[in-house]
Every structure is written in structure tokens, then in C-alpha cells.
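Issue: ligand-bound run for zinc ion - logging full I/O for the record.

Environment: standard queue, default settings, no custom constraints.

Inputs:
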Amino acid sequence: MAKLLSDNSVEFSAADILQAWENAPILINKEPELVRMCYICKFHMLQEKFNHQEIGELGWVIDLINAKKPELISSNFVAIHPYCLEYKAKSDNSKVLKKIKSQIWKFDEEAFKEQ
Ligand SMILES: [Zn+2]
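Outputs:
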């Protein structure tokens, strides 16, 4: 279980971290344990880069799917890029995430090679 600390930050348990990752959309041609997609920018994240904040590191943090009802439960956690937090259109992204997860996403190897 996640814990709210006295400085208003949240301490996540290993199970929360795992569930936030599991709640992020998968890419059909990538191993879901290692690579998933950020539902905001549709670019990928690397599992091993949890809590990496730098752009280009493809790191991720835990965000609330529905911040309107800010429950600290694992079904409300999702992995997203730290720099995409400010690009969320709404405070409740349950429907947006559900829609994106119902679609099929593929990692574009060709586009990435050219960088
Ligand atoms: Zn992103």
C-alpha cells in the first residue's frame, strides 16, 4: 500500500510500482515487462528507469489515473513520463487511458533507428 508522508509526498510499495507499470499500455512488439508506452505522448518508457526524471532517459514515475478522486490504491496508479505530467488534458484520465489501451500500439523500430 502507498503511504502519504507528512511532507505530502507519497511512498509507494513495490506492489504499487509494479501495478502502475502494469496499468500502462503495452506495445505489441516489445516485452511488456521491459518497455511500455506513455499514454500521454505515445512514446515509450523503460521499466528499469523508474524515477529517472531526465528527458531522453525514457524514465517514468507513478501518476494517479483519476486525480479528481485521488485514492492511493494501485488500480489508480499508472506509469507516465515525468515530463508528461503537465500535458494531461484532464484530472480524470480513466476514459482516455481505457480508450488508448483498447487500441493496438506498435513500437516503430525504423523511426527510432534514424535518431
Ligand atoms: Zn510521455
